[in-house]
C-alpha cells in the first residue's frame, strides 16, 4: 500500500503538483433489516479505492478510482493535476494551506467485541426478538429493526511527509413501529429515529441498546399516538429529550460553525451560515447555561478518530462558552483565513470523495439538573421526544422541528400524550431561551450516521453529546 | 477495467455478468453491474474551489436459496473479487431465514434500448467545465455579485442479469449544472439537467440567476399567512418529489401510509392535475428498465385528478398477483418500488398570464430544506429561497424575506388555478421530474426568517 501511495505522490509531483496527498481505503460493511418477521435485507459490502488530492498552479484538483493498480495510480495522479490546472483558470489567488504539516501515527477504534466476529444468527436473533415484541402489540402495521456494521482501513500519505494508518469501526442499530388506525398512521423509534443510533466501538454498543427490552414500549406508544390529542398552537415552555436536542444542536450549531460554509463554499447547496467571522469571540449565541464543545477525542462517538483526512490530529475545541461564540470547525485552508491552524475537522466519506469540514462530536456540555427536578420545576409546558421532521433555512436561523411524541407538562408533572408536535424558532433567540440543562447522569453521546453535505453528496457520521434541556417561550404547534 | 472512452461496452459487460452467474451455485442468482466515470466542478466566491473525478465499477449479487436471500456487493471486478462477492452472497443466503413472501426473480421481458450517450458529453473534460463555470463567475462579478454552484458530467453503465435469462444493459451520459448567485441581501438561482452537456447555455443561466439576485435585493418582511402563489418549476419539482416518495410506491399503499390507499378511482386532486411516471418519456433522463431488469412501464398515478395507480417491483407485485411495472430499486431494498421519471401534465398558461391574474400573492422561485411531517397528507415544511416576491394587482412589486411554509402537498393540488404551458426537467432528491409552473389559490406560510 505504501508503495502505491508513494507512486501516486511521485507522479503528481512530476506532473507539476506543489502539494499532493493520497488516501487508500478498504471498506467492508454488513447490514441486516428485519421487517414484520422477515429478514428483508441481509447484505455484505466491500469497497476499495484511492483518491489523490493535489494543488497545481495554485488550485485544487482531485481524482479517484476503484481500481488499485500501479497503472491506474499513474492515470489518476495525472488526471488530478490536469483537473487542478483547469481549476486555475477560474481563481483569484493561490490556495494557501499554511506551513507544511507532517504527521505519522496509527489509530484503531477501541472495542471489546469485534462486531464482525458475532455470528449472523445472533444478530438476526436479536432483531427478531425486538420485531416479535413490537408485533405482539395490537395495532402495529409495520415493525422494522436494523443493524449495521462498518469498518474502514485507511492510509493517508502526503508530499509533506505524512503517513498515517487508521482502522475505524462504526456500528448502529434501531427499531421502529408503525401503527395504523382511526384514519391515521403514527410511528415510534428507539433508540433514535431516522438512521438509528450509531457509534464507534464494538458489539457491546449494540447490546447496550437493549432493543428487545424497549420494543413493546415503543409499539404501545405508537398505537396510543393514534388517539392522542394534537399539539395546540402557542408559545410555551419546551423541554426537549436528549435525542431531539442532538438534532437541534446538529442543525443550529454544528452546521453553522463549519468554516467552509461560513466562507460561502456550500452556498449553492445547503447554504451559508449566520455565524459570520466578525461574530467570533463576541456574539451571544445562547444563554449563560449554554456551553458547546467539538471533541474528536471522545471515545465511542461517530466523530471520533485519530487524525482527520488532512493528517491533522484529533482535537477538542471550545465552540460556545457561557453562551458566547468562540470557535469554528476548520480545515488547513479555511483556518488560514482566520490566522489559525486547523483544528482537524476534515473528513471524506470514502476514497472517492474529497475531505470537507465535518462535525466531529459537537456536544452540549451537561448542566446541573436531574430530569425529575427539571420537570417538577416546570409549571406548564410541553415535553417533546425523538425527532420526526427537521428543516432549517439556508443561513441556519429559522428552524422547525417535529417529534414523534410529546406530553403536556402541568404542575411539574407529565400529562396527556400529544401527537404531531412541532416547534419553531430563530437559532440565537432559541438558545438564548435555554434556562436549564440536565446533568451528566442524563447525558449521552448520540450518533447521527447520515449527515449530508457537499456536491457530489457525502454522508458523514457525526456525534452529539446531549442531556435534556428546557427552553422558555417557544412557539409550538406550528400549522 | 473501463477503457479511456469511459464505457466498457455491452459485450464486455455481458461477458462479465455471464461469468458471475456461472460462478454462482444458488437456485436463482441476480447480478447488477454499475460503472461510473464522473466529474464535478464546484465553484463559490467566483472561483473553482473543488474539482473532482471518480471512476469505478461494482457488482451487487442477489443469491436465492429456496426462499432465503443473500446480497453481497464489491467494486473489485477482478476474477478473485467477483468470486468473493458470489461466495459471500451464498454464505449469507445459507444463514438467512426463509421469506415466505418471496416468489421468484423476474422472468425475462423484452427491453427497449434507448440512446442516452451523446459524444459531446463524453468529451466534456475539466477544461470545458472550467470554461462554462468561468462564464458564470465572470457575469456575476461584473455585477458585483458572487456565483456558486456545481457542474457535473457523469457517464454510467447499468446492467442487470439473472439466472432466468434476464439481461438488460443501458449506457448513459448526462450533465447537470446549478448556480446560486448572491448579493448582500439576496440571491438568484438557475439550473440545467440533460443528456447533452453542449446544450448548457452558460450565458442564459448566468442571466437568469444574476437577474433574480438583482431583483430580489433589499427584501421587506411580510406577515406569514395563507397566500395565493405562483410556483416556478424549481418549486413544483419538490411537490412531485414528495408525492412520488411518499405516495406512489406500492409498498407505501400496502403498509397503509400512502394518500393513494383506499382512493383508487376517486377524484383526489384538481381535474387539471395529471401525474405519471415514464422511464422512456420525452424529455427525461431515460432509463429503460429497473434494477431487476424489468422493462419500465408508463404508470399513471393521477389522471385528471383521479387516483389511478402506483408503481410496483416484483416483490410488491407478487403480493397482489400483479405484474411489476419496472420500478425496483437495487437489492437489498426494504423501501420498495420508487418512481424515477415523473411528469406533470401541462396546462395552457404562461407565467405572465399567471401573474396578470393575481391580485395579491407570492411568487416563489424554489423551496429549501423541505421535510415531511406526515405521510398520509404529505404535509411538508420548508423555506423559500433564491427569490421570493410579493405580487400585487398583476405585478411583482417587492422582494420579500424568505418564508417558512407548512403545507399538505396533496391539499395544495386539490385546487389549481393555472398550470404552465411548458415544462422543465429537474432533478429531485428521489427522482427526475418534468414539471410546469403552477398558480395555486392558497399556500400556508407559517413564519419568516431574517433575510
List keywords for this structure.
heterodimer; A: 479 residues; alpha+beta; PmbA/TldD fold; 2 domains; 8-stranded mixed sheet; 5-stranded mixed barrel; 10 helices; 22% helix; B: 451 residues; 23% helix; 37% strand; globular
Describe what this molecule looks like in 3D:
By secondary structure, chain A is α+β, with helices and mostly antiparallel strands. Chain A folds into two domains: 226 residues, PmbA/TldD superfamily (PmbA/TldD fold); 247 residues, no CATH class. Chain A contains ten helices and 24 strands. In chain A, strands 1, 2, 3, 4, 5, 6, 7 and 8 form an eight-stranded mixed β-sheet that branches. Chain A has a five-stranded mixed barrel with strand order 10-17-18-20-24. In chain A, strands 13-12-11-16 form a four-stranded antiparallel β-sheet. In chain A, a hairpin with a 4-residue loop joins strand 5 and strand 6. In chain A, helix 1 packs parallel to helix 2 and helix 3 runs parallel beside helix 5. The longest helix of chain A has 18 residues. Chain A is globular, with a radius of gyration of 23 Å. The relative contact order of chain A is 0.14. The model of chain A has no long low-confidence stretch (mean pLDDT 97). With 451 residues, chain B is of the alpha+beta class. Chain B has two domains: 193 residues, PmbA/TldD fold, CATH 3.30.2290; 233 residues, no CATH class. Helix content of chain B is 23%, strand content 37%. Chain B has a six-stranded antiparallel β-sheet with strand order 3-2-1-4-5-6. Chain B has a six-stranded mixed β-sheet with strand order 10-9-8-11-18-17, with helices on one face. In chain B, strands 7-12-13-15-19 form a five-stranded mixed beta barrel. In chain B, strand 4 and strand 5 form a beta hairpin. In chain B, helix 4 runs parallel beside helix 5. The mean pLDDT of chain B is 96. Chains A and B meet through strand 1, strand 2, strand 3, helix 2 and helix 3 of A and strand 1, strand 2, strand 3, helix 2 and helix 4 of B.
